[in-house]
């Protein structure tokens, strides 16, 4: 009965004329997500040392977003938002899901792969998952990628283990792979290429997620990439970014080999900001991973869709990972679900540098942020940042003050009042809809000085 109800609910969202199963002219979708990659960690975004030729190539063939955001300052929540179009506290994956925790991405959430399957798409996920806790990973009593719309998957719970080199914790369609030979990003890119060439029915459109582990710790870098930065104290991390970039190139080559590049929307981003102690940089932004300042949530964002997106263009329109869901449904002509709040909007206008209309402001609440910046909201050019109790706030005109150096809270009390009111209203709406029992009494918050490896 549960399966029937889910199928029926998805049917209600189908367009009047769904795609036929053999219609390969419909756009393919590929979302490539780096792990802990900072806004300043690439040549594409101004780093003068790190080589990212494939990101550069992707930018030259599509649009580079200058204000692309993750939906959270840590990974599990931001990934849940990409799949569901809903801010993390609303979809239930409100925190990182390392170790043991009760939260997970519920089957009651509607993901874009689930909807695409209903209209004839084949779907594949390779890479990090992190949408259930370790005690729930690859356990049939909890939803895995298959329950969220993926036909095929090769995944890990969280990090590549014991490192990016020869990882031994991949699982393919429920069966452990065992020890592998090579580096994680290249192994995933090869798996994606294999699926496209050997498994996928080329008469059908496809949706694929490639969620690599680089540059998340524990870092291991192939000497061919690390040697590019020989003598630099940060050579391993810098090489790790280039290693990730090489995998992006392998995926782009795989699309070319199958003749599908021109009909594929390829979106590249990161799940959150960088970790400076491992070598990551924010490009001058304030804060870093786990922060609700720009350095924790502003990330690379590149989109290529030949013939639909102007090659070599730049967009200054703010977009967020939550927008992926609505964007995919927009270009495939599937109506948004009407039984729940969808926080994201279609990025299609932003592809051309045109503004998007948001009913829900950009909102962040990161459970492990420093206490003075644990919640944030942006509307237009204005951003409010609040503390853990939502009692003390900072105010920034973010377009002019992208480094968040000039707090205007004291000098612009009326604007602060307006933004506080909007933040409280947005949070009240989220709190009422999301599974609040999962966070209101949570006892697994990190202790002071705890080492956080997620």
UniProtKB/TrEMBL annotation:
<feature type="domain" description="Sulfatase N-terminal">
    <location>
        <begin position="27"/>
        <end position="332"/>
    </location>
</feature>
<dbReference type="InterPro" id="IPR000917">
    <property type="entry name" value="Sulfatase_N"/>
</dbReference>
<protein>
    <submittedName>
        <fullName>Arylsulfatase</fullName>
        <ecNumber>3.1.6.1</ecNumber>
    </submittedName>
</protein>
<dbReference type="InterPro" id="IPR024607">
    <property type="entry name" value="Sulfatase_CS"/>
</dbReference>
<dbReference type="GO" id="GO:0046872">
    <property type="term" value="F:metal ion binding"/>
</dbReference>
<keyword id="KW-0378">Hydrolase</keyword>
<dbReference type="InterPro" id="IPR050738">
    <property type="entry name" value="Sulfatase"/>
</dbReference>
<keyword id="KW-0732">Signal</keyword>
<keyword id="KW-0479">Metal-binding</keyword>
<feature type="signal peptide">
    <location>
        <begin position="1"/>
        <end position="20"/>
    </location>
</feature>
<comment type="similarity">
    <text>Belongs to the sulfatase family.</text>
</comment>
<keyword id="KW-0106">Calcium</keyword>
<dbReference type="Pfam" id="PF00884">
    <property type="entry name" value="Sulfatase"/>
</dbReference>
<dbReference type="GO" id="GO:0004065">
    <property type="term" value="F:arylsulfatase activity"/>
</dbReference>
<dbReference type="InterPro" id="IPR017850">
    <property type="entry name" value="Alkaline_phosphatase_core_sf"/>
</dbReference>
């Amino acid at each position: 009965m549960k399966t029937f109800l889910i199928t029926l609910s998805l049917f209600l969202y189908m367009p009047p004329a769904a795609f036929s199963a053999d219609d390969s002219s419909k756009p393919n979708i590929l979302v490539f997500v780096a792990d802990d990659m900072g806004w300043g960690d690439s040549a594409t975004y101004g780093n003068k040392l790190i080589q990212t030729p494939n990101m550069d190539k992707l930018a030259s063939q599509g649009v580079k977003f200058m204000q692309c955001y993750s939906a959270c300052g840590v990974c599990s929540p931001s990934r849940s938002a990409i799949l569901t179009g809903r801010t993390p506290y609303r979809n239930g994956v409100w925190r990182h899901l390392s170790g043991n925790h009760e939260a997970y991405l519920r089957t009651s959430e509607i993901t874009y792969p689930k909807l695409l399957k209903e209209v004839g798409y084949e779907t594949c996920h390779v890479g990090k998952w992190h949408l259930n806790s370790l005690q729930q990973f690859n356990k049939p009593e909890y939803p895995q990628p298959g329950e969220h719309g993926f036909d095929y998957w090769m995944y890990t719970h969280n990090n590549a283990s014991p490192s990016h080199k020869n990882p031994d914790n991949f699982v393919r369609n429920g069966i452990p792979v065992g020890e592998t030979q090579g580096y994680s990003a290249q192994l995933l890119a090869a798996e994606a290429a294999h699926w496209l060439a050997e498994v996928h029915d080329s008469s059908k459109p496809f949706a694929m997620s490639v969620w690599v582990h680089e540059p998340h710790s524990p870092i291991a870098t192939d000497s061919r990439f690390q040697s590019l930065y020989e003598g630099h104290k940060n050579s391993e991390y810098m090489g790790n970014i280039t290693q990730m970039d090489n995998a992006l190139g392998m995926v782009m080559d795989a699309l070319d080999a199958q003749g599908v590049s021109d009909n594929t929307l390829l979106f590249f981003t990161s799940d959150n900001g960088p970790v400076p102690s491992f070598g990551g940089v924010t490009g001058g932004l304030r804060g870093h991973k786990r922060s609700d300042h720009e350095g924790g949530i502003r990330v690379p964002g590149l989109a290529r869709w030949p013939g639909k997106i102007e090659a070599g263009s730049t967009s200054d329109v703010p977009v967020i990972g939550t927008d992926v869901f609505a964007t995919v449904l927009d270009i495939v002509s599937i109506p948004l679900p009407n039984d729940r709040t969808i926080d994201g909007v279609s990025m299609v206008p932003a592809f051309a540098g045109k503004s998007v209309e948001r009913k829900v402001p950009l909102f962040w609440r990161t459970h492990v942020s420093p206490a003075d910046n644990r919640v944030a909201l942006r509307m237009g050019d204005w951003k409010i940042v609040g503390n853990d109790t939502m009692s003390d706030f900072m105010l920034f005109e973010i377009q002019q003050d992208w480094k968040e150096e000039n707090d205007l809270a004291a000098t612009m009390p009326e604007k602060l009042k307006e933004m506080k009111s909007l933040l409280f209203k947005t949070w009240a709406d989220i709190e009422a809809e999301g599974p609040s029992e999962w966070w209101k009494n949570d006892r697994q918050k990190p202790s002071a000085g705890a080492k956080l490896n997620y």
